[in-house]
Amino acid sequence: MKRMALLWSVVKGDARVLWHALRQPERPVWLLPATALLALYALDPFNIAMPLAGVVDDGIIVPLALHVIVRCLPAHLRGARRARA
Length: 85
Fold this sequence. Notes:
Helices cover 80% and strands 0% of the residues. The mean pLDDT is 83. It has helices spanning 2-22, 31-42, 46-49, 51-71, 75-84. It has one domain (2-84). The protein is built from five helices and no strands.
């Protein structure tokens, strides 16, 4: 249960950093398409066809991809939100 709480806190922090970066005018060009593809992947029809496999898949791949996207952001976009928090 502690691992799930830790994973949730990392995902929540990454989501906040991503939300902040998306609203900045100096965001990288690739950020918006990458975020859109991640959202589409999270909502894909595979979740409807095989609900259990889709939930397990989303619980692993989506947080990992979100973390990779945030880690690829420039430092000034990554650190600005954390400095204010």
